[in-house]
Amino acid sequence: MDNSRKEQILRISGSDVRKCMRCGKCSATCPSYDEMEYHPHQFVYMVEQGNIEKLMESPSIFKCLTCFACVERCPRGVEPAKVVEAVRLEVIRQQGMNHLTADDLPGLLDDDLPGQALMTAMRKYAK
Prior knowledge:
Helices cover 53% and strands 0% of the residues. By secondary structure, the protein is mainly alpha-helical. The chain is globular and about 45 Å long. The mean pLDDT is 86.
């Protein structure tokens, strides 16, 4: 178990995976449930257990729509979608495609691009 990777995922997601009681409400709400190898409640549990490598190798991280239906449904406020997104970001970083700096922003500006999209990208790739 790689505790540093687990801590990184917990920091990025901001979720307290220990609050999960594995009720499965998040997974029952997930529109991608049938497409996923690991479901939202399983992601949370696997991160809690430090079983990050299996998650990083799973195509499930790219099947999540990040629709936050699981977040809305969780009675304990665990936010499974943020956990999935953090694992996805860790995979992207491992592949070396995560770097975005302030100097990159002028090249991304476009009249049709909402400012919120730019700020979201900056927050996501600057952590």
